[in-house]
Design brief:
CATH superfamily: Macrophage Migration Inhibitory Factor
Radius of gyration: 15 Å
CATH topology: Macrophage Migration Inhibitory Factor
Distance between the termini: 45 Å
Strand order of the largest sheet: 1-2
CATH architecture: 2-Layer Sandwich
Helix content: 40-55%
Number of strands: 4
Number of helices: 2
Order of helices and strands: EHEEEH
């Protein structure tokens, strides 16, 4: 039983319900097509992580995005 965990930042740039559905469907189809896994037993979990809880380059994603908007 394949288990795939996708982590994305939440907030203003969080994926929509439709985008999440497309990710779940696409990953399931990819595992089925490439590895021959049964879609009925493929688990896909999408975790939204708060931007302040995700670090990149020594800063939170919130700080990185604020810096990029100013640039």
């Amino acid at each position: 039983m394949p288990y795939v965990n996708i982590k994305v930042t939440g907030g203003n740039e969080a994926p929509t319900a439709g985008q999440k559905a497309a990710l779940i469907k696409g990953v399931t189809e990819l595992l089925s097509g490439v590895l021959g896994k049964n879609p009925a037993t493929t688990v896909v979990v999408i975790d939204e992580v708060a931007q302040d809880n995700w670090g990149l380059g020594g800063m939170s994603v919130t700080e990185v995005r604020q810096r990029n908007r100013k640039a």
